[in-house]
Amino acid sequence: MGFNRFSAVFNHLFSEKRLSFEDNRIYLIFNIAVLMAILVVAGIAIFLLSIEAISSFWICVGEIIVFFVLLFMHMRGHYTVSRYVFFVLAILMQCYGSLYHGEDGGFDFLFLATALLPVLFFQKKAYYFSLFVFSISCYIAIKTLYDSIAPIMPLERQAIPYYSNIFISSLLVYFGYGLFKSAHLNYERKLKAQKKSIKQQKQALLGVKDQLEELLEVKARTIKEQNQNMIKYAYLNSHKVRSPLARILGLVNLTKFEDLNDEDKRKYYFDELKANAKDLDNVLAEINQTLSSNIGQ
To answer: Do residues 99 and 109 touch, judged by C-beta distance below 8 A?
Structure first.
């Protein structure tokens, strides 16, 4: 149970199912950036503890705790607030470190990272531009204050801690943009694959469309030919219908001039009408059978 819980938290740290691919990429990079910041501050805290800068050490510990809280907020969906507060806090801590330990501490080189990295995590220009202006303004102000404010706990310019801050600052910027570029290229590859798949599907649909159009054309020609054949058939066989019908009409007209009270004449006319009606019925049945066969085809 505990392992499953840890696995779920670990997976949530690097992926959020509710976000789109693009937003998930930013979510992942920010979480990694916070973890790296925690490691950097932890390294600084260890260094400060080694030189017995206890107050600065506890400030770093407090900063680490706040970073963990911001990471938790970010994982809970408070994206804009946690990101903005993270960078504001990082800038303020850099100001404190620079003024408290002096220029030789090398903390002011981290302003480069806090000025450039926010552009990766905010879509609105107002957010990342305000952080850029704030970071650069603090950097300029710190450089100016070095001449008028003496550090409370000055550090001697030791090679390892001093240049490590320069290295870490450059590494953060490089790593952030490297992650962004890698994720962007991955996104472009997926987008290209999707476009290729859509193009293939479109070509397949166009092929099906062409086949359907050909089938419809063939069917339309077949129906047209059948209709023309039926018209010709009806025209050619119309005399078969007219012949018995004309005889029936003729017999009906003749009855006007005959004495139908005579049993023999009446029987003659009825027999003739019956015979011609049967002929007409046979002709109509033949035509109906032929038409039914053509429609069935």
So the answer is: no
Q: What is the pTM (predicted TM-score) of this model?
A: 0.52
| Co-location of 245 and 227 in the same domain | yes
Does one domain contain both 181 and 264? no
Find out whether 283 and 240 touch, Cβ atoms under 8 Å: yes
In the chain, the amino acid numbered 46 is: I
Count how many domains the chain has.
2
Provide the domain limits for residue 239.
Answer: 208-296
pLDDT digits 0-9 by tens, 133-186: 998 898 888 888 877 877 666 666 554 455 565 566 566 666 666 666 666 667
CATH of the domain at 216: 1.10.287
Q: Which amino acid is at 189?
A: R
For 110-152, the three-class secondary structure string (H helix, E strand, C coil) is HHHHHHHHHHHCCCCHHHHHHHHHHHHHHHHHHHHHCCCCCCC
The reported pLDDT for the residue numbered 68 is 92
C-alpha span between 282 and 240 (Å, rounded): 10
Q: What whole-number distance in Å separates Cα of residue 241 and Cα of residue 289?
A: 15
Torsion from C-alpha of 202, 205, 211, 212, nearest 10 degrees: -130
Residue 51's identity, in one-letter code, is: I
Using only C-alpha atoms, what is the Rg of the chain?
47
**Residue that terminates a domain, selected from 199, 226, 248:** 199
Same domain, 169 and 213: no
Claim to verify: residue 192 and residue 271 sit in the same structural domain: no
Verify that 184 and 77 share a domain, yes or no.
yes
- Could you tell me which of 103, 106, 107, 100 has the C-alpha nearest to residue 153? 100
Supply the angle between the helices 159-236 and 263-296 in degrees, to the nearest 10. Answer: 160
269 and 179 belong to one structural domain: no
Q: Is 169 exposed, middle or buried (0-12, 13-18, 19+ CB in 10 A)?
A: buried
Residue 85 belongs to what H/E stretch? helix 79-101
